[in-house]
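Suppose you are handed only these lines of text.
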Amino acid sequence: MDRAWESRKAWLAALSAPVPEGVNNPLEVAAFETETYLDAARTGRSVRFVPYPAMKESYEICRQGNDFQIKGGQPGVLYGAYALIRALQAGEEIPVGVQKPYYPLRMLNCWDNMDGTIERGYAGRSIWFEQGRFDYDPARIRQLGRMLASVGINVLCLNNVNVHQPAQHLTDDLLPEVERFAAILRPFGVRLMLSIDFSQPLQQGLPTADPEDERVAAWWRQRAKEVWRAVPDLAGFLVKADSEHRPGPNAYGRTHAQGANMLARAVKPFGGVLVWRAFVYNCMQDWRDTKTDRPRAAYDLYRPMDGQFDDNVILQIKYGPFDFQVREPVSPLLYAMPKTRLAIEFQLAQEYTGHQIDLYAMPPMWREIMDQTGKQRVEAIAAVSNLGRDDNWTGHPFAALNLFAFGLFAWNPDADPERVIRLWCQNTYDLPAEEREKLVSVLLRSRAIYEKYTAPLGLCWMVRPDGHYGPSPYGYEFQAWGTYNRADCRGVGVDRTAGGTGYADQYPPEIRDRYADSKTCPDELLLFFHRLPYDFVMRDERTLIQRIYDDHFEGAEAAEEMQEALRGLPLPPEDRQEALTRMEMQVRNAREWRDVINTFFHRFSGIDDKKGRRIYD
Ligand code: GCU
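From them, the structure of the protein bound to alpha-D-glucopyranuronic acid can be written out as follows.
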């Protein structure tokens, strides 16, 4: 069996020996990991574990001279063990004292299809599905469990939210397979979740999937019973309903609260949660209709339902009101549902952010989002996975940083992006400090650079339709997805203030006021909230058009600088080769973006670049 993946460590460089089969629970994994690490590192230190079940996911590291004691629940001791190893490996201060995760539910959503493809996957095929069945290397799943546990991720949703072949997931013959898979991850404190199809009763012979029909509710209760009998610690079900042509309660004139609650009641006896996605909008919009504004959709739909959801329903909200764009304001729904349990959803898969070809380290973006959401209102966090069957797990070797960092942010949303990026570098590559700092700096700047050469001032959606890589400023303009920039010769952007679509009014007043005034609206969101002429004068006294040109020229130039910086890094040969090949593609992509977007706006505005740089006619 090809085990190349084992030597490409993603960030587990410190952990030399694979976790053997038969290591049965988090405590045993913790003991194995610390012993092998300390032996290999010849530190002369030892670790003693004190199981304390009531601490559950928390742990406390104490230092006694040269030795450590880790007290905690299960899997708390395991999180403590990894935190200790991570810190020793990085030469960081040991995190003594009690540590507990901020979000109880820290979940990876895998968009894996049973045929082995991954929706929006950029790192190869599914690691566990192929041709309609489970097909995996158990050692690799153990390594996956270890990766997730090492950064505190505790739930993995196994299948795509678009459940294309629902019958295959919950039929009895597949349940033992789900359990076998769950059993491999269990010692790592990782539980499974399953995506379900709201219309499944129809496919099983019922005449309806109406959530208010008692036959439907009974069918789901029975289903839940069978599923939990097979996988007793399943975390719950994840549902995408009435969204992008997926079936849902609206077909029966029922609300999403009715739909979610019916399912929540079926899973409740087993301690399951029902995660309901709030990614719901009209994907059949007429572009001529300027009244409908897609970003409004989730708030308009769910806000009136606050207080109607059962206590084991979690409403999962994408961080922005559109769809994982490079820059969006934080979703106003995150502020608007005080009586509902909420999860925030990120996307590690780089769908709109460079396909794991272009560098895009997410921690700086998450820092901004976390600072704005009033994170205390959110109690769960999910991210779409960026993993696949590629040997290095994430296609681009540096894309592993985003999974690592997601775990650390889910544990502590106050994390410092630079520190997390550095920690990943230290735990992945053995680089001299000066070289390591070059890599840290490239990664830290990568998001801002990508934003500069792609998305001007919060416009979004100038990407090629379908694939979502490369520029196409009018690609989405006359389509049904509700994603318009309305650029013409007079100006660009959508007025989302009270005088326009009114979207800005969905925010609490102080945030609304800041966004609604073009003088106080942050530059990077200016065209998200306002429609402005090309000669609009920005706060720094540049005109809007000049700023668009400058950003695109500077962004493409900065991509070339990143390439230069990477060339000199003494990385392991496969990673270096892969990173440089992708960097070359990124530089080409950045130039393409620069030229297409600048030409597009030059044609509309008729205004030349003040600095006389080349803009194609
Ligand atoms: C995006 C993505 C889809 C996905 C959807 C979702 O629109 O392009 O592939 O299904 O998000 O989050 O459900």
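What can we learn from it? The longest helix spans residues 573-605. The longest strand covers residues 341-347.
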